[in-house]
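Pasting as-is:
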Amino acid sequence: METTPSLLIYLAYLALGYLIGSLPFAVIVSRLFGLADPRSFGSGNPGATNVLRTGNKVAAVLTLLGDAAKGWLAMYVSGKVGAGGTAIAWVGLAAFLGHLFPVFLRFKGGKGVATAIGVLIGLDGVIALGAALTWVATAALTRYSSLAALVAACVAPVLALARHGLGAVSVVVGIMCLLLIVRHKANIVRLIEGTEGRIGGEKTT
């Protein structure tokens, strides 16, 4: 039976998740590979898609894996130190918010697609798989990373509701996906205008 943690313990879990989520893998990996700071070119977004614009696919993949892993890791660690199922779900959201508003980058972070996938893995592998396949299919068909993220963000809450009803998992997934859409506001405008960059374009040194 899941016990209800005290407020201070709950806040400690959330702080742990936020700090793990704040780790800026795009910046860390770019520095390790001697690449330009991803905030200085392209979309200015510290994420895997922008790192890919350097032409270094290995760095982009490592960024993607790091950003996804931290979402899952925050939930795994919190579970190991005593958090229950509901608390773990909210820790996942805290990690996601850490990526969006990282303390290590003066609260100017990425858009959260990879981290959201990591959180979904921690919540429910089926939802994560459904969202990931939606992203891959849309990206393959259109070569728009932003459009793929938006379509996946619409699919994930539907899957969450179908599998979990109106519980903590569905609420967390819904909040994440809403924030993902908001973070892609500029991309939505560029998609409408036909000026959005495609995957593999805009290489920089």
